[in-house]
Amino acid sequence: MKKYGLHGNLKAQNGLGKELAAILLQASALVSTAKGCHLYLVSTDKQNPDTIWITEVWDSKEDHDSSLQLDGVGALISQAMPLLAGKPEKGLELEVLGGIPA
Amino acid sequence: MKKYGLHGNLKAQNGLGKELAAILLQASALVSTAKGCHLYLVSTDKQNPDTIWITEVWDSKEDHDSSLQLDGVGALISQAMPLLAGKPEKGLELEVLGGIPA
């Protein structure tokens, strides 16, 4: 079955990439057990350590959207926002065909 | 431990995205059991069904590079090349920090 994928990045202010990544790793731990979540990867851009990429795979866009309401996620978003260099851009939406972790 | 990630796309000629994706799903099946491979996702770009994205996570860049030599991979690359609209571009290299499938 096809899944919903999202690949996007958040840019931290200069030198704050590690701090932003630490918050996103907490989000990953929270969200990875949510309904319909198959993947929530957190990565640093090799060319720019202040750019953090998030790669998600969900059963559906609805499951992804619901995850933003989970306990604790709002608090993490509030912690992350002041670290960002500008407004987050919309990620790349994918229809994931295969290679999905069990 | 940090892992090596690669996120890139291949653009098929008009209307050949499904055919290209089918070849890449065969590659995913071959490669996902290779040494050091944690993820080999194959996805269609929601905005452009002839653009196929591949998202890989490996223990190391060396493990990724070695996978290109696996039995059967060369044959799949040969099948895919004539479907492409132009030369593949280098993907985005990532240092994957967390959320890695077991």
Automatic annotation (TrEMBL), chains A, B:
Pfam families from the UniProt entry: ABM (PF03992)
GO molecular function, one term: monooxygenase activity
Keyword Oxidoreductase in annotation: yes
Segments forming domain ABM: 4-96
Source species, domain of life: Bacteria
InterPro entries: ABM_dom, Dimeric_a/b-barrel
Keywords for this protein: Monooxygenase, Oxidoreductase
Keyword Lipid metabolism: no
Protein known as: Antibiotic biosynthesis monooxygenase
